[in-house]
Amino acid sequence: MKLEIKNLEKKFGKNTILKDVNLTFTDSKIYGFVGRNGSGKSVFLKLICGFYTPTSGEILLDGVNYTLSNAFPENTRALIEKPKFLPDLTGYENLELLASLQNKIGQKEIEETLKKLNLFEEKDKKYSKYSLGMKQKLGIAQVLMEDPQLMIFDEPFNGVENETAANIRELLLQEKKKKKIILIASHIKEDITSLADVVYEFDGGKIQEITKK
What is d(CA 86, CA 175) in angstroms, rounded to the nearest whole number? Predict the structure, then answer.
């Protein structure tokens, strides 16, 4: 899988959020994005997901510019900003509902993912009763559970306890070995540098590579 960003620009009115962005992402790597809040990280990820249409430029997945039809990219799952689920359903029921949209997985895969994130014991609790950290872990679970080729995480460690954060880092390193493209954005550089093969910084609408392992 290859994800290509070509001459990307995004404006909201007269405000330019991103300009002249050219990047290529290939499988078996984790790409990190850092920058202050409001620097354009979430907008960039939403553009990749097809939630926004570029003002100009192209986003291609394996050579196909899917943004022309406002489509969500194939074989992709994302956690962007705060996760949102149905409050009156349990954690498990929310994941089960999402899984039913494509019927790729069943109870076994959902429960295995919850166990990996130390959330299995809370699977029958209503989402409205979840703590911030539990909500975050459920959001990560919905990205992981269907084994997508492109995984996108926006501030994935917010509110997550240290033990589970370490588990998530190990999970993502394992996923990378399965020829995935993994994109992670955070305003905390330490979260990124411990995981990413390549790190980019957002500043003034530009994205610049700042370190590479």
Answer: 28
How far, in Å, are 43, 54, 60, 127, 143 from residue 196 at the CA level?
Answer: 20, 26, 22, 31, 18
**Could you tell me the two tokens for 138?**
């459920």
Locate 54 and state its tokens: 């570029």
- Strand bridging mode 150-154 / 76-79: parallel
**8 A C-beta contact, residue 54 and residue 21:** no
Of all helices (H) and strands (E), which one includes residue 32? strand 29-34
What's the CA gap between 108 and 30, in Å, rounded?
27
pLDDT digit of tens for each residue in the chain (213 aa)?
899 999 999 999 999 999 999 999 999 999 999 887 778 899 999 999 999 999 999 999 999 888 877 778 889 999 998 888 999 999 999 999 999 999 999 999 999 999 999 999 999 999 999 999 999 999 999 999 999 999 999 988 888 888 888 888 899 999 999 999 999 998 777 778 889 999 999 888 889 988 654
